[in-house]
Amino acid sequence: MDKSVADTRRLGCKRQDISDAYGPPCNFLEIDVINPETIGVGRSRFTTYEVKLKTNLPIFQLKESSVKRRYSDFEWLRAELERESKVVVPPLPGKALLRQIPFQGNDGIFDEDFIEGRRQGLEQFLNKVAGHPLAQNERCLHMFLQDEMLDKNYTPSKIRQA
């Protein structure tokens, strides 16, 4: 066979049995953004989202966690990843500035449909970011997903696997 032509034959693979097909996946990372909750009244009103993580990836210290985050926390995470990592960070769902104008006769950014759309966008954002192998090494991502309180004065660093 000519060495200059790429070999396109299929690799030999092991036949899948029933335990492989229906057993637990080798590696998984599940992140859900759920239970949006609007807190406060007037100008001090805001919405929190529960971020649930389930994984068996060895780089994560906790295999299951649940934390509450505000939209501003997602903005912080995005800014940190852009500043510290080599990852192209996807955009967050928009700020909806027009919805914040008072006296429009609607709930603005606290409207249920708007909150649900934002929740879905935040979940997509997190799954894209956390699914990237380089982002998984960033300390800010681990703090965001697993620490109850965010220390926004942390020292940026990489996570080392045990």
What does this structure look like?
With 162 residues, the protein is of the alpha+beta class. The chain is 28% helix and 17% strand. The chain contains four helices and three strands. The chain has helices spanning 18-22, 71-84, 112-130, 139-146; strands at 29-39, 46-55, 64-70. The relative contact order is 0.16.
What integer is the average pLDDT? Answer: 82
The ordered H/E elements are HEEEHHH
Number of strands: 3
N/C terminus separation: 45 Å
Strands in their spatial order, largest beta sheet: 1-2-3
Alpha-beta classification: alpha+beta
Sheet having the most strands: 3 strands, antiparallel
Radius of gyration: 21 Å
Strand content: 15-25%
The amount of helix comes to: 25-40%
> Uncertain regions: pLDDT < 50 for 5+ in a row?
none
How many H/I helices? 4
Molecular shape? globular
